[in-house]
Amino acid sequence: DYEKADIAAAVHAGGCAIYHACAHNLVHEKSLEMLQALYKQAVFALQAKHAYEKGSYIAKKADLKAELLPKDRMILEYGEVVKCTHTMDVSELQRYGDVLLGWAGDLIQAYDADEM
């Protein structure tokens, strides 16, 4: 059984990892493959966030999507778009990356261990 503080720490760590890698990708790599991996990683952070907030873990992405607030649901929806994309111009990559970066930043602030 996990303690609530452990779950919050996992959400925070996930947000930090996504934020750091996303910023690096937007500035240096500009890689669709990296963006796809980051959106996939966001699913795990959303699962942990839901477990923290609602007390239950949801394994299936479709079931999770139905439970999420609009801003979090948008991350799953954008992730599906990015996953199914084979090519993306730099402006699209920037747009999808900016959304993920902002979401991860919000997650970091919301689950800051010093504030909880």
Radius of gyration: 14 Å
Q: Could you give the distance between the termini? A: 20 Å
> Structural class, from secondary structure content?
mainly alpha
Order of helices and strands: HHHHH
Overall strand count:
0
Mean residue pLDDT: 95
Question: Largest sheet, if any?
Answer: none
**Count the helices. How many?**
5
Strand percent estimate: under 5%
Uncertain runs: none
- Looking at the structure, what is the overall shape? globular
DSSP helix fraction: over 70%
Describe the structure.
By secondary structure, the protein is an all-alpha fold. Helices cover 78% and strands 0% of the residues. It has 5 helices and no strands. Helix 2 (32-54) packs antiparallel against helix 4 (70-83) and helix 2 runs parallel beside helix 5. The radius of gyration is 14 Å and the shape is globular.
Quick description:
It is built from five helices and no strands. The chain is mainly alpha-helical and 116 residues long.
Helix/strand layout:
Layout: H1 4-29, H2 32-54, H3 61-67, H4 70-83, H5 90-110
Helix pairs in contact: 1-2, 1-5, 2-4, 2-5, 4-5
Keywords, please?
single chain, 116 residues, mainly alpha, globular
